[in-house]
Design a protein that fits this description.
alpha+beta, ten-stranded mixed sheet, Pseudouridine synthase
């Protein structure tokens, strides 16, 4: 890695140990070097010296120093951007007041790098720097295949305050999904802890109440259904665990999200319908207080992308369905 960088701690990483977080968020730095940098005080959390076992909180900023890995022939620097990338990231912006930036992320690009991911939103945010050279920083993340609202902020104050809101569950998140089949219940709350799988499925999560698991809570409402074969479901996560909605849908409701290759929805088919094979999960709406004035509420809504609109219409579901019933 060449050039120091600052990484904001997102909601789903809240409570994680610093060393484990760095293994995931900065895999290019060898573990032994991470330990050395922490001991020397070169890795800082909110400007302060960090400890290996320090627990991180959403909204904190971790500063990594310039590191040269002499065992590599090439240095890993900032993500390379192309001629059309500025227009691409700007096309996602649905709100920008100079401090706060809200994007409508497509369902074919990762939020952050790591794990072999070469192109991601976090890298493209360099192209949204303001006149003061401030780039937006991610407040939370969406899975690569999930589209919809992705919140960012330019000022450290806004990043910290937003992070605390997610940590304190003051951010109201509404997701739209198509499940196959339809849930038996019309609405309810799912409380099922999640843990990271190991071995060949280490990129997946599963329901488990072991020592390393974290409680995950999801409210859901069936907005519409086509008999038992499919449903338009509104998910309202109270927590922000990795793959939370996807696992809860598949392993608790036994109704995987259409197009979900990891959790069974990729095998689901709707006879006679030519539908997109992508994950049918969309971060539709995000409601939370303003980071500088908690008496003011921010309310961001992202329309369904065309490929998902096609599925909603094919199943006879209203793409203009109001989400007010969930508030």
């Amino acid at each position: 890695m060449s050039g120091g960088k600052i990484i904001a701690v997102t909601e789903e990483d809240d409570g994680q140990r610093l060393d484990r977080w760095l293994k995931k968020r900065a895999p290019e730095i060898p573990y032994a070097l991470v330990q050395k940098l922490i001991r020397k005080g070169a890795i800082r959390v909110d400007g302060k010296k960090a400890k290996t076992d320090e627990r991180l909180s959403a909204g904190q900023e971790v500063r990594l120093p310039d590191v040269e890995n002499r065992g590599q022939k090439e240095k890993q620097g900032p993500m390379k951007t192309g001629a059309n990338d500025a227009a691409y990231i700007k096309s996602m912006v649905i709100y920008d007041d100079g401090d706060i930036v809200a994007l409508n992320k497509p369902g074919d690009i990762a939020s952050q790098g790591g794990g072999g991911v070469e192109r991601h939103i976090d890298g493209l945010l360099e192209l949204l720097k303001d006149k003061k050279d401030r780039r937006p920083r991610l407040i939370h993340r969406l899975d690569r295949d999930t589209s919809g609202i992705l919140l960012c902020a330019r000022s450290p104050e806004a990043v910290r305050n937003f992070g605390k809101m997610f940590h304190d569950r003051r951010a109201r998140k509404i997701y739209w999904a198509i499940t196959v089949p339809a849930p038996e219940r019309q609405e309810g709350t799912i409380k099922a802890p999640l843990a990271k799988a190991t071995g060949e499925h280490k990129d997946r999560m599963y329901v488990n109440d072991g020592e390393d698991s974290k409680m995950a809570v999801t409210d859901f409402i069936v907005v519409d259904r086509t008999g038992k074969k499919a449903a338009f479901v509104m998910f309202l996560p109270q927590t922000g665990r990795t793959h939370q909605l996807r696992v809860h849908a598949a392993d608790v409701l036994h109704c995987p999200i259409l197009g979900d290759e990891k959790y069974g929805g990729g095998k689901a088919r709707l006879d006679g319908m030519d539908l997109s094979q992508r994950l049918h999960l969309h971060a539709r709406r995000l409601i939370l207080p303003h980071p500088k004035d908690s008496s003011k509420m921010l309310d961001f809504a992202a329309p369904l992308p065309p490929e998902l609109q096609k599925t909603w219409k094919a199943l006879g579901f209203d793409v203009n369905q109001s989400t007010d019933i969930a508030l």
